[in-house]
Amino acid sequence: MDIILCATQRCGSTLVVEDMRNTTVLGVPGEWFIPWNPEDKSVNWLRRVPRVESQGRSANGVTAVKIMANQAGNVDKCLSAHAEGTQGLWPFFAATFKNAKWIFLRRNNVVEQAISRVMAKQTSVNHATSGTEHFAGKTLKGYDKQYNSKVTYSYDEILQAATAVTLENIAWDRFFDSHRIKPLRLFYEDTAFDERMSHLDEISALVGLGNVRKEPRQMVKLANEKNREWKERFFIDAEKNRFRPIFRPI
């Protein structure tokens, strides 16, 4: 594997994946590890690695995959019976892909990411696109500002999502530290609004390529006024509850 994009849900990874795919030379990253199930003992998962590489290979031979923090443990367990591991977090995962170039994408604003998770869960919409076809699942074709008109605010649900995001980011940092990996670190807030798409130049340099093609995205921003309203309400509730879950007596 040439490129492994490490992420957390709703951090903007699909946007980066679209940019990479559009270059036609930075692999075809996707969540190709999703079907991996450590409960299936009949499979030699190490022998499935070439299949993942094939799914993520662009025409020039570069391979890429995207993996979420809450998927890495499953992949490590799948590989544990067949690969050699060392110490540290997810050692078999690290050892199997020791020659890969690692990218860590995160979002600076954890609360906005948490709200995005809650919105996605309640609406079953993860993305919106200006086109009619897109590789991402649960995609709204064209943007409708009323798509989240029936969502229900929950302080505890957002707090739980924010806690999960924080712990997942910590897990990635532990993984990199324990295996002395120095990933290319990208932030959603930079990649989303940089018209020059400088992150593609950085990724291209990782695998020894020069200038790459940069195409306009089909993805459009989902967040709207309701996201902003929830954010302000959450901070008020967080202070009121001393940044803890709401206590409900049994």
TrEMBL record:
GO MF: transferase activity
InterPro entries with a match to the protein in the record: P-loop_NTPase (IPR027417), Sulfotransferase_Stf0_dom (IPR024628)
Pfam families referenced in this protein's UniProt entry, alphabetically: Sulphotransf
Domain of life: Bacteria
Entry keyword set: Transferase
Keyword field contains Transferase: yes
Record bears the keyword Transferase: yes
Residue ranges annotated for the Sulphotransferase Stf0 domain, each copy included: 4-234
Protein name: Stf0 sulfotransferase
Lineage: Bacteria, Pseudomonadati, Pseudomonadota, Alphaproteobacteria, Rhodobacterales
